[in-house]
User: Fold these one by one.
Assistant:
Number 1:
Amino acid sequence: MATSQRPSPIAAGLAGRCPQCGKGNLFNGFLTLAPKCEACGLDFSFADSGDGPAVFVILFAGFVVVGLALGVEFLYQPPYWAHALLWGPLILLATLGPLRPFKGVLIALQYHHDAAEGRLDRGGGR
Ligand SMILES: [Zn+2]
């Protein structure tokens, strides 16, 4: 097969697939990257999303859950145990659920845009 088109980085990342071929698994575990793609052999050692996915997820989940908690408090004034019962599980779902897709998207975008740490390479250039 000749070189095929690359998949969309968003679609490949959300599905946890290889950003080059869109077929192999990007992840070995929940958030652990596979060493390389089992379909095309792309080495995933370039991938370093750092704290990026966690920051996005925490900001988004915090905005949603705190907004809901404030709304419920102002409307119904439930006891504190009801708040703990509602928002404890919801914050776990809202943070752990999107963490893997977010990490996949950030790594796929990193590959798509050939992003890497800054280098002091003064030779030639493109
Ligand atoms: Zn691949």
Number 2:
Amino acid sequence: MRRTSSLFIALLVAAPLGAQTPAPSAGLSVHWEELTGPDFINAIKRAQNTCLLPIGILEKHGPHLPIGNDLLNVRYAALHAAQQEYAVVFPEYFYGQIFEAKHQPGTIAYSRGLQLELLQETTNEMARNGCKKIIIVNGHGGNPNLLQFFAQSQLESPHDYVVYVQGLARSGPGEPKHKSDRAGDQHAGESETSMSMIARPDLVHLDRATQESGADLARLKLPDGLYTGIWWYSRFPNHYAGEGGVASRELGEFEAKTWIDAIVQSIKAVKADQESLRLQNEFYERSKHPLDTPQ
Ligand SMILES: [Zn+2]
């Protein structure tokens, strides 16, 4: 060990000074909070103004997974993707929709208005700092409606940036066979637990997965297409859906790779997308005087 370090120091001393100074864009962290101010400018340039906002949640995940499971998993996927296709990744963000787990320990459920306001102020501040293309990477099953409404509501008033939403994308062709019923495998079940075994294996307590039931109680008898907010609680009051105990690293590796690949493809597509902002601007302009819009 000592020999290696003295050799390393000798090499450093022998190297010309310029060789030790990294190129402006080389070795830049993808973590927003790890960059210096001057490096941040280079990072935004290297990212072609593309930034990721991974969004998780704090909620119970069965008897065997950590409360921050979705935050930990989505950050694992987003950070790995950004390292493959450079983008600046916003720090930990877990202010999503989780009213349905308020009866369980550790849930942080901010009010409806604040969720939207905080998202808007966060994306506004990101854009003010050069993130003109923001991909919200969702890691929580209770967020899609909130995030799509948020993205849609960007048309309410002009913005000089575009919000994109990347959904959960852990399954795909070639997926290893599942051991549990896929219809019931929703929250802290086989799939999600497998992903957690890759992102944070130290926090997965597989031996506790059968301490509670993740069965669907199906207590509401309503027609398909008729929605009500208590639907989730009516089915899964333990806030656990599926069988986490049959999770495997094999499935987790597939899921992690599939999710990371999907985010990489989205970052590439967003970098290449020059149409969304142009169309948004055209739309904002026309929306000021709709009677002049060509019919
Ligand atoms: Zn989850």
